[in-house]
Amino acid sequence: MTDEGASANEQLMAACRNDQEDTVEEILESGNYDIKYTDGAGNTAAHLAAKYGSLACLEWLVNLDDIDLNIKNRMEGNTPLHYAVEFQTQDVDTAAAMVDILLQGGADIKVENRNKMTPSMLVLPKNKEISDLLAQSTAAYEIDDADIANDDDYGSDDGEASD
Fold first, then answer.
1. pTM of the predicted protein model
2. Which of 9, 37, 53, 102 is the most exposed place for a label (fewest CB within 10 A)?
């Protein structure tokens, strides 16, 4: 397939689908793209990278400030994290690496697709690595600021620590 007539957005989508890291890097560095661009099914470049196991491309994408990793596509209501988890049926190691990258990038594990499935519900029972990554992320979401000790909470009003 030649991309000569394709827009930068279409080229970015194709590069993410086909794991063409150099092309993704080139487009992102040019700044001539819309990271919110979607195809007819509502997939973003991150959706396609996760769906097709394009790990290196996904790494480039999650580092963009304005990327929305929790956007649902129109077809299944999947986020890139749903697709990364589903990739476990093709390559467990790549799927786990993509899940980790997406979680570090701020992907929300609580988003449900059209079938009311969260990414955690899609993990195969035998896949402990992905289950553990999602469980750790769940624990992090459940801790709020009130659960974290703050040095300012201790001591008297005059700034001295109490015994």
1. 0.81
2. 37
